[in-house]
Amino acid sequence: MRSPHGPWPVILCLTTVVLTMAAGSSLAATPNPEQRFREATALMRGGDIPGALRIYRELASAGDASVNLYWNWAQAAAARGQAGEAVWALLRGRDTGAADAAMEREIERLREALHLDAAELDPVPTARLGRLIRRWHLASVAMLLVLASLGFHTAARRSSLAWLKPAAWVMVVPGVGIALVGLAVTASRPTAVVTTRDARLLDAAAPGASVVATLREGEVVPVLDAAGEFLRIQDSSGARGWVRTTEAWRLDQVAPPDHR
Amino acid sequence: MLILAALALLGVGAGVARAEEPEFRAEVEARKVGLDDTFALTITIEGRSIDLKGEISTPELQNLQIVGGPSLSTRVSFVNGAISQSRQYTFILQPSAVGTASIGPVRATLGERERSTEPISVDVVAGTVVQARPRPVDPFDRSDADNPFDALFGQQRGPVQRAKVLVTAEASRTHVFVGESVLVTYYLVTQAAIAGIELEDAPKYPGFWVEELPRTDEQPRGERVARDGEPFQRFAVLQKLLYPTKAGVLEIPAARFRLGVPQRPSFFDGFPGGTTTISRATEPLRITVDPLPAAEGMSGAVGRLQATAALDRDSVQVGEAATLRFRVAGTGNLKWIEHGPEVSIPGVRVYPPQVKTDVKAGPAGMSGSRTWEYVLIPETVGIHHVPALTFSHLDLGSRRLTRTTTEPLELRATAGAGSTTTVSSAATGQLSTPTAPGGELRLRAELEARHQVIPRVTATGLSILALVAALGHLLLWGWPRLSSAGEVHASTVHGRSTRQALSDLRLVARGDLSKESAAVLVEQCIADLFGPLDERPAEGDSERELALKSILRDARFIRYAPQLGDYSEKLGEVVDRAATAIRRWA
């Protein structure tokens, strides 16, 4: 038996779910994040960099991350001489929001200062495409296109309007295409930034493991596996091993665990 | 000869390995001699390696005759692997007449090369010119007056092998702690000249850390010693600095040496004989090693050591680097100290230390210093206290565990212009990361956090989306066809498919048929595709049934209507409705 109202109740439900999720994330936000951010800025100017970093970490963990937060985080890390952490913050900032030319320039400046090749900051080829998809919410666009195409297709079965069916096909092709590209990108390996100078690449995920190499600070490495406080990574020379999560921070984490 | 060649071939010692070209020269005692004088012509081969193939040639002499020799003198020095050798042939010559005498070149094959000395000319005058000169003393020279065999045998003495030759090993200490140095010296103790000495096998030191002593180019100095009432010459040929790594009674195994002993010159031809090889071994040594006293914080260091701590500056700006140096200096096993003290200062970032070692090994042990350099970067304004650092070691002066504590230090951190931010690359040994050309922080004032209204779609979400799209469209596209497939089967029973029905309707629409035939064809198409239908509407009929029944009613009206009217328009409208219904529901 067919529903007398067609697919519209389903679409309505999905929209409700999406809006509810958005509202939920807004409600979960930290109260007065702007005020806390200004407090952190004041601490930075007063020389209390650890205090400022604590607030930045707190805001990021609460979902109040922004390009500006990661920008200031990078400034604080650089002021402490933590170039790797600064690179991590800048790359997080780039992934977080809209295109920021200053952020791009700062990443480039740090890359040159750390004597890193451009490929060492972009080891996963699909990462750039992933950023594009995230920045323009193309995955959501794909979802809307697919849902709309289903709606048009359903309507075409019930109405004699000739344009409905071509419209459905016109929407489903880019929708599914973007969804598949997004799927490939999101399924690609996550990455981490080496945040410690001479971070040790170990032969096992154990505290007493032997050191097989040292990693370059600021280098972005693909994460192959994770086990407790260790990440299995591959460096730019192809060497694979384990590194502590305190020495390589994942880029898909809003704020790394505070071990410092 | 053989042993010298063997030494060169075996590459004993770095000096041999370097294989520098030996010096080959001829010298006379005097360039002006009297007719009644005799004088010495000395042919010398000298170098780190002497690879003499065969013998030297006898020089061509003019106005001279050989009245003695050749006698052979060889000398080898071998200390800690550095070897130096010389071989001297001495001819005693006498002029034949007043005037000019000449000595032609002497030829010899050294290694792969043919070498020759420069010719020498000598003025011969009447009478006597050359004074008798004392011969130089050579500890290895067989003609040494101190050699007991000279006194025993004189010119008639027997073969050199009868003299006593032995090697010994002596340890500077036989009872030590783990990590305390022991100097082991190998001696050649001999009553005879030795042409060469080498180790048969590398000596082994199980349970010891071996520290090589720097090589020296000094000639070995012999000393007179007495063993069992007999006089000997003793030469130190090898020294090793050992550090026991475990407690217990450790044995240093015997070391075996190969010695080259030159033969006496042949009585008949006056040329020197060859060299025989003999083997001698030391006695094993036993060292008793006590364990280090167990104590918390014991560094493992043993010796006479002092620890100090210092800051390179007292005051820095926040974000600038100061260097804390923790230095352990003195004599002891400095290389064994692996870790410096843990340094933790609240409000100051402390980098892992860089270790600098300046240690020289000598017979008394390792002396020098080991320094841990910590880079400190204050992160807050104020006075930061560097705590007293402790260092525990076994002091060999008191032979007790000693704990040294350095003086606490203070580091003042001030807020500089722009309140931060450059890190001295020289101090940290790493990247300098100024945040701005002037060192000023470039901070952004507003957070501008925008919560995502559109939630991020995850990989799972995208997978579900692609699946839903595919399935949804497949169902929408495929279901009617699946249904129609069933209907095709049904229509096959009734003899008409959807396609055929639509074709028949197009035939009706062309107007070639009579109204009765056209109406029947429409009715048959509907009946074939949808089954028999009652044209009367009933309660609960669906949209489809209502539409089909309406078409059937109109078709039957046209069929049974009087012939007088024009029903083509009405028929066309019914055909359109029937086609639409068939496309939609069939």
Give a written overview of the molecule.
The complex is a heterodimer of chains A (260) and B (586). Chain A is of the alpha+beta class. Chain A has ten helices and seven strands. Chain A has helices at 8-27, 33-45, 49-61, 67-79, 83-96, 101-113, 118-121, 127-135, 138-158, 164-187, and strands at residues 191-194, 199-202, 211-215, 220-227, 230-234, 240-244, 248-250. In chain A, strand 5 and strand 6 form a beta hairpin. Chain A is globular. The model of chain A is unreliable at 1-5 and 26-30 (pLDDT under 50). By secondary structure, chain B is an alpha+beta fold. In chain B, helix 6 runs antiparallel to helix 7 and helix 7 packs antiparallel against helix 8 (543-560). At the A-B interface, helix 1, helix 2, helix 3, helix 4 and helix 9 of A face helix 5 of B.
Mind describing the biggest β-sheet of chain A?
Answer: 5 strands, antiparallel
Structural class of chain A: alpha+beta
Give the strand order, joined by hyphens, for the main sheet of chain A: 6-5-4-1-7
**Greatest interface by residues involved:** A-B, 64 and 56 residues
Global structural class of chain B: alpha+beta
- In percent, how much strand structure appears in the residues of chain A? 5-15%
Distance separating the two termini of chain A: 63 Å
Give helix % range of chain A: 55-70%
What is the compact description of this entry?
The complex is a heterodimer of chains A (260) and B (586). Chain A has ten helices and seven strands. Chain A is α+β, with helices and mostly antiparallel strands.
Layout of secondary structure:
The complex is a heterodimer of chains A (260) and B (586).
Chain A: H1 8-27, H2 33-45, H3 49-61, H4 67-79, H5 83-96, H6 101-113, H7 118-121, H8 127-135, H9 138-158, H10 164-187, E1 191-194, E2 199-202, E3 211-215, E4 220-227, E5 230-234, E6 240-244, E7 248-250
Antiparallel strand pairs in A: 1-4, 1-7, 2-3, 4-5, 5-6
Helix pairs in contact in A: 2-3, 3-4, 4-5, 5-6, 9-10
Chain B: H1 2-10, H2 13-18, E1 23-28, E2 32-34, E3 39-47, E4 52-53, E5 61-62, E6 64-79, E7 82-95, E8 99-103, E9 107-110, E10 113-116, E11 120-125, H3 148-153, E12 165-171, E13 175-177, E14 182-190, E15 196-199, E16 208-211, E17 223-227, E18 230-244, E19 248-252, E20 256-262, E21 275-281, E22 285-290, E23 298-311, E24 315-317, E25 322-332, E26 348-350, E27 354-362, E28 365-378, E29 382-386, E30 390-395, E31 400-405, E32 409-414, H4 425-428, H5 459-494, H6 498-509, H7 515-530, H8 543-560, H9 568-585
Parallel strand pairs in B: 2-11, 13-22, 23-30, 24-32
Antiparallel strand pairs in B: 1-3, 3-7, 4-9, 5-8, 6-7, 8-11, 9-10, 12-14, 14-18, 15-20, 16-18, 17-18, 19-22, 20-21, 23-25, 25-28, 26-28, 27-28, 29-32, 30-31
Helix pairs in contact in B: 5-7, 6-7, 6-9, 7-8, 7-9, 8-9
